[in-house]
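Review form for a predicted model. The reviewer records the input and the model, then writes brief findings.
Reviewer: anonymous (R2)
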Amino acid sequence: MVIVDRLMNKAVEEHVFPGGVLLVSRDGRIEFFESYGYADLFCGKVMTRDTVFDLASLTKPIGTTLAAMHLIQESKMNLDQTVASILPRFSDPWMTMVTIRHLLVHCSGLRDYRPYYLKLRYSSQSERRHRLRAMLADEKLISPPGCKLLYSDVGFMILGWIIETISGTRLDQLLKDEIYRPLGIENVFFNDSFQACEIKNMESYAATELCSWRKTLLKAVVHDDNAFVAGGIEGHAGLFGTAGDIAKLLLVLLSDYRGKSDKILFDANLMQTFWSCHQPYGRALGFDMPSCENPSCGSYFPQTSIGHLGFTGTSFWIDIENSIVVVLLTNRVHPSRFNFGIRQFRPVLHDEIMKNLGL
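Model under review:
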């Protein structure tokens, strides 16, 4: 993959991102795994294959969605269960019609985003999660449930709340105990932003943004503002991880989908339900699928492919048909979020990867 290597080096040189790690797997074998550039421009820390990244919205598919799948498999929750039946605090009468399925597909009618942190940052740490959930409970739908696709952080924050309510366990602990630890995955995890002083191995993290309101360079604490003020453990953002362990997790899910896993995490029927396209939205449950126009995974990934993007410059794509997994982790928001060159870079890179694999 000489051209792929050149593309990654060129992206660093042209400041698409300070650094990145690219892993490509086919049929369960690693075909390419390299690191590029810098994890931290200010101290000159070089990126390595073991660098830990803020995964941003990859939290949704490989965190919150997997936790939901676990509860469904355990018959503790079902896709057509309503939000209001679990959390009766919601004031909007339309919420009686919003289901778990709606939240996972992003067609609940909830708005996409709210800057809750602007108010919450002035509250004490002990009050913030309680106040956040009060704000979530006051949300009004902007369209009827099931009528419109709108990618929603708010919906996944509510889904995280639902999971914790049903399980009686905080989201990070549930994922650690039921998903990651049984698979031997140590390097996909949340960091509690209220206990940042206890975070170890700070040098292993990729830096993200020079935050204007936190007045510091962010490293090992979540970049997402709403997740940070709430303690770093939310349904929409907060996961950290390495490319190697993300790939390890995705390969188990792919094997489960085919009913051929040595370490069965989910029943094949459940995997197939979650990884099927839900029309007319063009999305899987909790996971994204290639868009019809200018997909981030390029033009060679089939429409049945599964993936997701993260705001910090992270992504993964799985070509289910050809057993190909591509994990691209970058720190494109370092030192500023106003760097969007990765939008043009991603499809070019993925096209070149697929050409190299003969597809």
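Findings: The longest helix spans residues 59-73.
Further findings: The first strand starts at residue 19 and ends at 26.
Recommendation: see findings above.
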